[in-house]
Amino acid sequence: MDGAPTPRDPFLRSRGMKIPKHPQITTGRIRGAIKGETYERKECDAVMRMVQDDDVVLELGGGIGYMSTLIATHKKVRTVHTYEANPTLIPYIRSVHEANEVTNVTVHNALLADGPGEPVPFYVRQNFLGSSMDKSIDEDSIVSTEMIEQRDINAVLAELKPTVLVCDIEGAEAHLLPAADLSCLRVAIVELHPQWIGQAGVQAVFDTMHRAGLTYFPKASEAKVVSFRKGW
Predict the structure, then answer these.
(1) Which of 59, 81, 152, 224 fits 166 for a cystine, CB–CB 3.0-4.6 Å?
(2) What are the tens digits of pLDDT across the range 173-228?
(3) Which residues does the UniProt record annotate as the domain TRM5/TYW2-like methyltransferase (predicted)?
(4) What CATH number belongs to 11-229?
(5) Which of 196, 147, 149 minimizes the C-alpha distance to 168?
(6) Where are the domains of the chain?
(7) Which residues on adjacent β-strands are paired with residue 14?
(8) Residues facing residue 85 across a β-bridge
(9) Distance between CA atoms of 174 and 202, rounded to whole angstroms?
(10) H or E stretch including 201?
């Protein structure tokens, strides 16, 4: 009808995907990066170059579901398993998958560790993108504490047999990856956090990849996002 208000689009559009608008997630800088297709650009570029049809992908650090959706909608992968510790992000990740008719991604609200362990506390904050396992950061903003399951990374690798690892776990890469048998991988894409893990942590990641038969691949690496592959 003439003069009727136009319904607002509930989605942002990015790299051919529909990203549901959310009052706490798709705001400010994140909104601009999603719309401008610069959100996690280096990691996206590496994934698009390295992931192949029929791959099994293990993603550590699911974030807002952007990367797993990109992989599932742009590559004919067999499956993606996404691990995200932040429980408040899980419903949103699933909403991103649903909006893009993604059916081959399994989301796990769990932490991978260097062995089996008891559940660990995760501190949910008012701005839940700031939620973390570190209680000391802005304690006044904590609204709840959730206990998050820990799973043995080697048991998960043995069960899933992934061919691709995509890892962005805010510095935990320096101690988790060296504990893992990554020999099943064809490709690994890791966002390093040298500001937290230092030179020794960066070296530990590179040494781990080399032990797994994976070689640094500069053509799919940029700044802190480093890619490794088997063979040349």
Answers:
(1) 59
(2) 999 999 999 999 999 999 999 998 999 999 999 999 999 999 999 999 999 999 99
(3) 42-106
(4) 3.40.50.150
(5) 196
(6) 11-229
(7) 17
(8) none
(9) 7
(10) helix 194-211
Q: Which amino acid is at 47?
A: V
Supply 211's token pair: 């032990």
| Digit-coded pLDDT (tens) for 11-64 | 999 999 999 999 989 999 999 999 999 999 999 999 999 999 999 999 999 999
Dihedral of CA atoms 136, 141, 144, 146 in degrees, nearest 10, equals: -40
- Does the predicted model carry a pTM greater than 0.70? yes
Q: In angstroms, rounded to a whole number, what is the distance separating the alpha carbons of residues 15 and 154?
A: 33
Give, in order, the Cα–Cα distances in Å from 57 to each of 46, 69, 78, 188: 14, 12, 8, 10
Beta strands in 168-229 (DSSP E): 187-191, 215-216, 225-229
| 29 phi, psi to nearest 5 deg | -65, -35
Residues composing the chain = 232
